[in-house]
Design a protein that fits this description.
The protein is an alpha+beta fold. The protein contains 9 helices and 12 strands. Helices cover 38% and strands 23% of the residues. The protein has an 8-stranded mixed sheet with strand order 4-3-2-6-5-1-11-12. It has a 4-stranded antiparallel sheet with strand order 7-8-9-10. Helix 3 runs antiparallel to helix 4. Aspartic acid binds next to strand 8.
Length: 337
C-alpha cells in the first residue's frame, strides 16, 4: 500500500472503529453524534425520468408507492425491529406494485418471460442471500432472505432457486402473474426496433437502513432489462455489485445498467472507500458512479453510513427515491428536487 494511503487509512481506522463499537455494543444512537434513532432510505429505480413526460396522476402514484414502502419499513424500525427486516419490509410493497420493475410489473425477457433477481445483506455479520433468474417466486426478496437464513449458501440461480424457495414455503405464482400490458408493449417495441431505451429497465427497487442498535442492511430486487437474453443476470442479485452492508461502514442498494455496475463492483467499492479512504458515503458513491460513467453506464445508489448519514447519488435524469426517520419522510423523483 502506498505510504499516503496507509497513513490515511490509519487515521481513518480510528473513526471507523469507533462507529463499529457503537454498532457491536448494540447501543441506541448516541445524541452526541446526532445520529437518527433509525433511518430507512429507498429507491424505485433510476433513469431518464423527466417532469415533462410525467402526468400528475402518475407522479402522485409513484409518490404514494414510495410512501407506502417507506412506512412499511419504518413500522419495523419504530418498534425496535432490525434493519434487515426493515429493508425487506420496504421492498415487498414495491415488488407487489406494477409501477416498479421488481415483482408484478417486471420487464419481459426476449423469450417473453420474467426472470427476477434479488439480494439482501445484513451488516452485523455480513450475512447475505441472493436469488437470480427466479421465475415463480412472488416476492423474490423473501427467497433471497431465505437463502441467507435457511441455507448454508449465499446465492441460488435459475430453476434450483425456485425449487429452494418452494421447499421453504415461500409463495409461488405462475410466471404470467408478473405480466403487465405496459411491459409487454415495451418488449414488443424493443424487439421491433432493436433499441432498448433507458425506460426499458428502470423500476428496480431497493432499500438501505440503520436500526436502533446501529445495524445496517441493504436489499435490492429487479426484473432486469426489457428483452434481456434468457439467463442474463445483472448486478441486482450480486453482493458487492448492487447490494452491500457492513456495520459501522455503510449500506448500499444500486440501480442502473447492471453490466457496468458489476464491472465496477459499485456497492463494495463505495463501502471500501468509506472504510479505507474515510470518504463520506456521498463522495464514495459519486466516485463509484463516476467510474460507471467512464465505462459508459448510468444509474444511481442509495447509501447510508454507520452514523445514519445518507445520500441519493445518481448520474441519470432522475431516480424514484425517499427517506424516513423519526423526524419525518421525504420523497423525490426528478433530478432537481
Ligand atoms: N440493475 C438492473 C439490471 O441491470 C436494472 C436497473 O436497475 O435498472 O438488471
Amino acid at each position: 500500500m502506498p505510504i499516503c494511503a496507509l497513513a490515511l487509512s490509519m487515521v481513518l481506522i480510528a473513526g471507523c472503529q469507533a462507529s463499529s463499537v457503537i454498532a457491536q455494543e448494540g447501543n441506541a444512537v448516541s445524541s452526541e453524534s446526532e445520529q437518527p434513532e433509525w433511518r430507512l432510505v429507498i429507491h424505485g429505480g433510476a433513469g431518464v425520468i423527466l417532469r415533462e413526460n410525467m402526468t400528475a396522476e402518475r407522479e402522485a402514484a409513484y409518490t404514494a408507492a414510495l410512501e407506502t414502502a417507506l412506512e412499511a419499513g419504518a413500522t419495523v424500525l419504530r418498534d425496535g425491529g432490525s434493519a434487515v427486516d426493515a429493508v425487506q419490509a420496504a421492498v415487498i410493497p414495491m415488488e407487489d406494485d406494477p409501477l416498479f420493475n421488481a415483482g408484478q410489473g417486471a420487464v419481459f425477457t426476449a423469450a417473453a418471460e420474467h426472470e427476477l433477481d434479488a439480494s439482501i445483506m445484513s451488516g452485523a455479520e455480513r450475512d447475505a442471500g441472493a436469488v437470480a433468474g427466479v421465475k415463480r417466486v412472488k416476492n423474490p426478496i423473501l427467497a433471497a432472505r431465505a437463502v441467507m437464513d435457511q441455507s448454508e449458501h449465499v446465492m441460488f440461480a435459475g430453476a434450483g432457486a425456485d425449487v429452494f424457495a418452494e421447499s421453504v414455503g415461500i409463495e409461488m405464482v405462475d410466471n404470467s402473474y408478473f405480466d403487465t400490458d405496459r411491459r409487454r408493449q415495451s418488449l414488443e417495441r424493443v424487439l421491433r426496433e432493436r433499441v432498448r431505451n433507458d425506460a426499458d429497465r428502470h423500476g428496480t427497487v431497493g432499500a438501505v437502513a440503520i436500526d436502533q442498535f446501529g445495524n445496517l442492511a441493504a436489499a435490492t430486487t429487479t426484473g432486469g432489462m426489457t428483452a434481456k437474453a434468457a439467463g442474463r443476470i445483472g448486478d441486482s442479485p450480486l453482493i458487492g455489485a448492487a447490494t452491500y452492508a457492513q456495520n459501522g461502514v455503510c449500506a448500499v442498494s444500486a440501480t442502473g445498467h447492471g453490466e457496468y455496475f458489476i464491472r465496477v463492483a459499485v456497492a463494495k467499492t463505495i463501502c471500501a472507500r468509506v472504510e479505507l479512504a474515510g470518504e463520506s458515503v456521498g463522495d464514495a458513491a459519486q466516485n463509484a458512479l463516476d467510474q460507471v460513467a467512464e465505462l459508459g453506464g448510468d444509474g444511481g445508489v442509495v447509501v447510508i453510513d454507520g452514523n445514519g448519514e445518507y445520500e441519493y447519488v445518481f448520474n441519470s435524469k432522475g431516480m424514484y427515491r425517499g427517506m424516513i426517520d423519526p423526524e419525518g419522510m421525504e420523497t423525490a423523483i426528478f433530478e432537481q428536487e
